[in-house]
């Protein structure tokens, strides 16, 4: 977690009324402590709503609570009911998850693909319109962070466990299906053509980690930043919809939006924890012969959750920040190790070739209709798009917080391109190394389980024990920091927009994340994790499509330099 993330999580919401330097001297600014009022002209929204006015505040049995009654009650009861039923009836819930996943992907994959395309197209189009001259935070706002610091935080915001889990397994899987012409091959594959199969595998992998996920994050983050820093509304999902709903965002329409954001974020984080636990368990088995079973994974989830709880109780500035910085440094060192110890020239040339293959195949890979590679679309792309959408409230809030002072054009170019380039570097280093091992005659990576493939690939390089152990540590700490900050974001949403709510509420949500991950693993494993993300991502996809209209309306009303 970066210093900016720490600052974001420690914001103390309050309302303040002040005169702005905008066109209308009678406009009022609802500012928040730590989130400054617009600097220069900005079109503030005049509303009488006070943050936290609908909250329940009490102190019983030594526990203080300060929460939005409706949002918290509905969210927590539905989630608790889901956990109880899944843990009580794991054998019965497995087929339910399978059925839900199959139904949604078979019938609605086109919606996920179409929506993601809309987000990317909107982000790109906005770059070239006069609306891109709007500055986040007002016409005279100055950036809070340097370009170097800002770029680093953009990448750190949205990826982590996913890169560790899929950095090897996705390229090697796509390569295997492409060269054999398997029904799971992206775009039909390239049967018998090793070079073309590798190109197709890397293009498909980068497709899932490139412009589309960051287009989703960009739209959510820009919307939150605009309606918070320029319009004076709380940094919550409901604020985005003021151009559509007006004052009704403070009623049940807004409650439903925030509840959906809670569901999406919780299941997105739980999916990441489940994937991380399965990979860490596989790594421990590979290195130390610790049994790779549900017991080990459950114990890992409990352990990771307890560490996340400790960080929530102590505060994110007392250890977790340093731990996160060490984690990012370890990830960078692991990347450099693979580049320089692995097939260095192949990785260097592969970066350009893979980027070219990605851009060449992008239109075909993103086509939502008339696809023949239905297994690839249903089993991979639909899951990824739902996963990114479920993470978008959490990641969007962070990106919005660190992007004040940037123009819309700066913001969109950076959010779309910088993380995409870093993702291409990572996937090229790990993916091309694994494929190189396979084409050289080593089939261990291909034959290993998905969660084990990273460690088998590292096993063919020097310092296996050290690099594999580093990989396990990276997976664990990536989730600890995500769980910690994710719990605070969810707590903010369910506390009516406050982020200074009592600690027991944060502890509750951290525990819920772990409980959901355990329930999903026991109730169906990876399929259950995917089903949960797709199910919760679907309604939130509709929410984000409506947000596209809202953001255009919000930008049109803003002064431009």
From TrEMBL:
Q: How does it sit in the membrane?
A: Multi-pass membrane protein
Q: Keywords in UniProt for this one?
A: Cell membrane, Membrane, Transmembrane, Transmembrane helix, Transport
Which Pfam family, giving just one, matches this sequence?
BCCT
Keyword ATP-binding appears in the UniProt entry: no
> Where's it found, cell-wise?
Cell membrane
Q: Please list every transmembrane segment annotated in the UniProt record, as residue ranges.
A: 71-89, 109-128, 148-168, 211-229, 250-275, 295-316, 328-352, 382-400, 412-435, 455-480, 507-526, 532-552
Main subcellular location of this protein, as a coarse class:
membrane
Q: Where is the region Disordered? A: 19-38
Q: Name one GO molecular function term.
A: transmembrane transporter activity
What is one GO cellular-component annotation here? plasma membrane
Q: Which NCBIfam families match?
A: bcct (TIGR00842)
Query: In which family does this protein belong, per the annotation?
Result: Belongs to the BCCT transporter (TC 2.A.15) family.
Query: What is the name of this protein?
Result: BCCT transporter
């Amino acid at each position: 977690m970066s210093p900016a993330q720490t600052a974001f999580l420690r914001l103390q919401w309050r309302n303040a009324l002040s005169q702005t330097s905008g066109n209308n001297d009678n406009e009022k600014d609802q500012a928040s402590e730590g989130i400054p009022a617009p600097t220069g002209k900005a079109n503030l929204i005049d509303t009488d709503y006070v943050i936290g006015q609908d909250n329940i505040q009490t102190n019983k049995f030594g526990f203080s609570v300060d929460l939005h009654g409706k949002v918290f009650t509905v969210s927590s009861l539905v989630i608790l009911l889901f956990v109880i039923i899944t843990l009580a009836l794991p054998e019965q819930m497995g087929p339910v998850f399978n059925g839900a996943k199959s139904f949604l992907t078979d019938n609605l994959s086109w919606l996920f693909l179409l929506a993601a395309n809309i987000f990317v197209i909107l982000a790109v189009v906005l770059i070239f319109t006069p609306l891109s001259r709007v500055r986040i935070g007002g016409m005279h706002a100055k950036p809070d962070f340097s370009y170097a610091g800002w770029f680093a935080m953009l990448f750190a915001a949205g990826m982590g466990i996913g890169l560790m889990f899929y950095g090897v397994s996705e390229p090697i899987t796509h390569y295997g299906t492409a060269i054999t012409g398997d029904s799971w091959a992206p775009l039909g594959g390239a049967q018998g053509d090793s070079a073309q199969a590798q190109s197709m595998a890397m293009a498909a992998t980068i497709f899932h980690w490139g412009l589309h996920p960051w287009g989703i994050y960009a739209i959510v983050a820009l919307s939150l930043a605009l309606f918070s820093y320029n319009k004076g509304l709380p940094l919550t999902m409901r604020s985005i919809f003021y151009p559509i709903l007006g004052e009704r965002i403070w009623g049940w329409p807004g409650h439903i939006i925030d509840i959906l954001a809670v569901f999406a974020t919780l299941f997105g984080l739980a999916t990441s924890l489940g994937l991380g636990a399965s990979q860490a368990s596989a790594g421990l088995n590979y290195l130390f012969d610790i049994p790779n079973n549900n017991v080990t994974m459950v114990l890992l989830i409990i352990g990771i959750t307890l560490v996340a709880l400790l960080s929530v109780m102590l505060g994110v500035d007392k250890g977790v920040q340093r731990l996160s910085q060490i984690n990012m440094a370890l990830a960078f060192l692991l990347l450099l190790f693979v580049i320089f110890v692995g097939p260095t020239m192949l990785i260097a040339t592969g970066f350009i070739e893979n980027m070219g293959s990605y851009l060449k195949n992008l239109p075909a890979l993103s086509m939502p209709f008339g696809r023949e590679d239905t297994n690839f679309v249903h089993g991979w792309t639909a899951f990824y798009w739902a996963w990114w959408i479920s993470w978008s409230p959490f990641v969007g809030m962070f990106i919005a917080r660190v992007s004040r002072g940037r123009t819309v054009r700066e913001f969109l170019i950076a959010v779309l391109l910088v993380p995409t380039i870093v993702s291409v570097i990572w996937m090229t280093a790990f993916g091309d190394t694994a494929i190189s091992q396979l084409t050289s005659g080593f089939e261990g990576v291909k034959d290993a389980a998905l969660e084990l493939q990273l460690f088998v690939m590292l096993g063919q390089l020097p310092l296996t024990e050290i690099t594999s152990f580093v990989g396990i540590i990276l997976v664990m700490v990536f989730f600890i920091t995500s769980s910690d900050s994710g719990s605070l974001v969810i707590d903010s949403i369910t506390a009516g927009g406050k982020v200074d709510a009592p600690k027991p509420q944060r502890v509750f949500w951290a525990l819920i994340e772990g409980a959901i991950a355990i329930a999903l693993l026991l109730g169906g494993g990876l399929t259950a994790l995917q089903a949960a993300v797709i199910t919760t991502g679907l309604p939130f996809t509709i929410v984000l499509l409506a947000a596209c209209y809202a953001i255009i309306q919000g930008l049109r009303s803003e002064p431009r330099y």
